């Protein structure tokens, strides 16, 4: 007899907020129970006792091996709202896949840059926005020379910028994680954009950093450039390359989040 899957059904939620049920295998679905009377067992008349014992066993094995419609999920078993949500779950669009591939290609080209191992300590981007790694003595000298007085620490869970900074700096902490399952745009971007916009509007200069200036700080800065300077992901990466910062966006999940953010929120 077929054994039902040990994987339990998962309750989830569609992008619109409608709950739906996701089953891993066909056997996870509820089955219909037949109300028909049991099939009468054949008598042993005309057969030897061995035939009478073997025949029902073979019949039972054949019946178990045959898939039946009773294992097929019925629409009546799934609520109409659940069924509608399951059928309308958005799939990855062709345009999104193409843009992801183009971004990956651009970053691969940057890896062939002969100066890729020489990363500037601080990279100026646009109108008083800078990006880089955790401040050391050399970076602190650059910050003072450039008149930077607002610091955004994207790796506050690991490192405290205030320990190394002298007085006179305003520090904003973000507890972002550099891992593939962290939704950095969702958790951090709105507050990040508000801080940067307010600081630049009031004449301040902003330095955004994580540990190495590769993933977290770069991702948030690119999202900001896309929204406020009307740039695409490829143009942003090319801007970083023109400023000498080519070792960026190693976190593939962050790349995909930038593409999703651009297509779903900014791209007309």
From TrEMBL:
Q: Which UniProt keywords apply?
A: Hydrolase, Protein phosphatase
TM regions (residue ranges)? none
Q: Which domain of life is it from?
A: Eukaryota
Q: Which residues are in coiled coils?
A: none
E.C. number, please?
A: 3.1.3.48
Q: Name one GO cellular component term.
A: cytoplasm
What region holds the Tyrosine-protein phosphatase domain?
A: 121-267
Record-linked Pfam families: DSPc
Select a single GO molecular function from the record's annotations and give it: protein tyrosine/serine/threonine phosphatase activity
Q: Where does the Tyrosine specific protein phosphatases domain start and stop, copy by copy?
A: 190-243
Could you mention a single GO BP entry for this protein?
Answer: signal transduction
| Family of the protein in this entry | Belongs to the protein-tyrosine phosphatase family. Non-receptor class dual specificity subfamily.
What's the protein here called?
A: protein-tyrosine-phosphatase
Q: Which organism is it from?
A: Trypanosoma brucei brucei (strain 927/4 GUTat10.1)
């Amino acid at each position: 007899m077929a054994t039902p899957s040990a994987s339990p059904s998962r309750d989830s939620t569609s992008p619109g907020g409608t709950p739906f049920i996701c089953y891993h295998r066909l056997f996870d679905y509820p089955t219909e129970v037949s109300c028909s009377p049991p099939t009468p067992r054949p008598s042993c008349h005309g057969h030897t006792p061995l035939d009478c014992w073997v025949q029902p066993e073979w019949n039972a094995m054949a019946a178990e091996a045959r898939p039946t419609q009773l294992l097929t999920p019925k629409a009546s078993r799934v609520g109409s709202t659940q069924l509608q949500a399951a059928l309308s779950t958005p799939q990855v669009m062709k345009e999104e896949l193409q843009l992801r591939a183009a971004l990956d290609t651009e970053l691969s080209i940057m890896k062939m840059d002969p100066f890729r191992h020489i990363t500037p300590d601080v990279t100026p981007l646009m109108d008083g926005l800078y990006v880089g790694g955790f401040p050391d003595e050399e970076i602190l000298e650059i910050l003072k020379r450039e008149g930077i007085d607002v610091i955004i620490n994207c790796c506050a869970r690991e490192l405290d910028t205030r320990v190394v900074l002298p007085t006179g700096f305003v520090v904003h902490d973000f507890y972002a994680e550099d891992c593939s399952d962290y939704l950095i745009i969702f958790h951090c971007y709105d507050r990040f954009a508000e801080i940067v916009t307010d600081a630049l509007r009031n004449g301040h200069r902003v330095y955004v950093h994580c540990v190495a200036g590769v993933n977290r700080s770069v991702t948030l800065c690119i999202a900001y450039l896309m929204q406020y300077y009307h740039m695409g992901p490829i143009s942003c990466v090319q801007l970083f390359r023109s400023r000498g910062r080519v070792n960026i966006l190693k976190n593939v999940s962050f790349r995909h989040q930038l593409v999703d953010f651009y297509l779903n929120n900014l791209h007309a």
